[in-house]
Every structure is written in C-alpha cells, then in structure tokens.
C-alpha cells in the first residue's frame, strides 16, 4: 500500500505505533508490527514453512549477526550518498516532492529544496558525516560491496541456494538506496556487478519457486 504523508502517516501509522516510519504490518487480529527484524521473527513463529532463519544454531547466529550489521551500519553510508551528492539529492528530493509529499501546499521546487536541507542536516552532518569521516563512511559501502561480490560470484544468496534473514538485512539498503540512487548505483554496477545482479534476484525471489538449500 502506498503511504501518504499527511494521511496514513499521521492518521493511521503514528496513532497505532507511535512512530512515523515504515514498514509496518497490521495483522488480521489487529496487532500492529513495526521494525523489520522483530516483524520477521513474528512471521517465523506464525509461519514455519518458508523460514528465512536457519534452524542450525551456528548458521542462525551467523545469519542474525550479518543482518544486525546490515540493518544498523549500512544506514549511514546510504543516507550520505543520497544527500551529500548533488545529483542524488536533487533527483531524490524532486521525486519525493512529486510523489510522497505531493499533498504539501508549497511549490514542488520549494518542497524539494526544503527536503534537501532537512535531510542533509539531520542524516548527514547530524549523523557525524564530516570532511574528516567521509572517507570512512564511504569505505563501509565499498568494502561491503567487495565482500558481497566475492560471495555472489560463487552462489546466489548469502548462505547458499535460498535467501536468509541476512539477505533481507542487506537488501533494505542495497535495493532502495545503493542500487537505485545515481552515484552508489554506478559504483555497484562497475565495482560489484554480482551484487547488482543479486539485488534483482532477491527482488524476484519467491519461496514457492526458489530452489536450493542453505550451505552446511
């Protein structure tokens, strides 16, 4: 469901979760779930078929460790590339102004300019990305690409022949940010083409047709 800022966020999501964030899920019983990791745990408990967390305790721990790293540490470089580079910032702010924030009364160019300033102030400089730390923040992305490239040259998913929780942890930033935003997307295509291919593979994956098992 497409979320509208002035409608769903303020009138539906925030009153039920106390957060202005997506994704959220409302269960058939009326329970609201927020935060992707515990959300997946809920589905694992309710629907054992098609599990994305290995039952083996060592594999399960490794899977959760990778997911936690991807979920917590890829956020900063993702927002940095989006709002520090002029091409990316203008493209994304204009897209947001014309879609996600289309209901705002300001002219689209003004909404986009306001958004660029806000996002950079909060998620770049406000999150510690400065001239002194910029190279380190970008290295997080570049080094991760190199490690993932080495894996996906040999197998379709992180733990073998089918997706696991760790794949979805990396997918959040690798799809919505790094593979779609102009600057990091070009870097991914040139530096780690197997990662770019994995993004499309995971987006197209379905439990009913994904063959293979986790490596042992």
Explain this structure.
This protein is mainly α. It contains ten helices and two strands. It has helices spanning 5-17, 36-46, 57-73, 75-84, 86-98, 108-123, 134-152, 165-178, 182-191, 193-203, and strands at residues 24-26, 32-34. Strand 1 (24-26) and strand 2 (32-34) form a beta hairpin. The termini are far apart.
Q: In summary, what is this structure?
A:
With 216 residues, the chain is mostly helical. It contains ten helices and two strands; from the N terminus they run H-E-E-H-H-H-H-H-H-H-H-H.
Brief descriptors of the model:
216 residues, mainly alpha, 10 helices, 2 strands
Multimeric state: single chain
Helix-residue proportion: 55-70%
Low-confidence region ranges = none
Instruction: Please report the distance between the alpha carbons of the first and last residues.
Output: 38 Å
Tell me how many strands there are: 2
Number of helices: 10
Structural class: mainly alpha
Element pattern in H and E: HEEHHHHHHHHH
**Largest sheet, strands/sense/barrel:** 2 strands, antiparallel
Whole-number mean pLDDT: 89
Radius of gyration, CA atoms, in whole angstroms: 19 Å
Strand line-up of the largest beta sheet:
1-2
Characterize the overall form: globular
**What is the strand content?**
under 5%
